Amino acid sequence: MKRLALLAVMALVAVGLMPATAGAGTDGGTAQVTIVHDATYDAPTEPFTVTVCAGGEVIDGNFSWGETLGPLTLPAVTIPVAIYVGADQLCEGEPDIGGDLVLEPGDDITVAAVWLSGEGQPSIAVWPNDSSCFAEGEGRITARHGAAAGTVDVVGTIAGEQTVLIQDLEEGAQSILDVPGGLVVEDAAIVATGTTDVLIPLGDVTTIPGFNILVYAGGGADGGADAFTGLIELDPCEVPVETTTTTAGPTTTAAAQPATVTPRFTG
Questions:
Q1: Which CATH number fits domain 132-234: 1.10.3470, 3.30.70, 2.60.120, 2.60.40?
Q2: What are 244-258's pLDDT values in tens digits?
């Protein structure tokens, strides 16, 4: 996380530079927002920088491919967002990507600049984050497809057997997979769907109990595609509590699973 950018965002919120649109966020709730730069012509050789603006103010004037801001706690309002290709912009003129990010109370999302085949320019993907609790011994993998590389599969070798972990992942989409912690996936790779054509080699991956491994695919517009990763620690699920009385048998209570909310990004 870039601390200066985070402080800038919170300062904007504090002085009211991110006003609510009528009907949005009127109950004073908040949302969790993570910002990711996953748009590049040719990864990793051409990771161009962008300037990220919100509410007409610069959030980060030198945001590079593979970097992440957040998670940020923001008011549940409609925030005008603009992205300019290049560093040290002043949030002036026509943005390369622009629109209103509509946040609802309780949202937990990642907003990413991505490069999709049909767009011909950077665009925005909004992915709900799965921050639900993990069962004992389990981990999680989240694959996010921001490359102009067509529909892909994620494959690897598990216990000597070639396995398709994630199938038919479309550009701009994500797939979330709960897996046993400590699972070793050898020669993991992102391949064109239904083929063995490796687009992005990932190497050996070992899942971690209690952690969500994020894999971001980017590039492919003008040249090569590549990937970068992130890691998020999850909260354990509440351990069932077993009680015994003289008049009733054992009872158990389990933690509720939080809801996932999909917000809107309007251009």
A1: 2.60.40
A2: 544 433 332 233 333
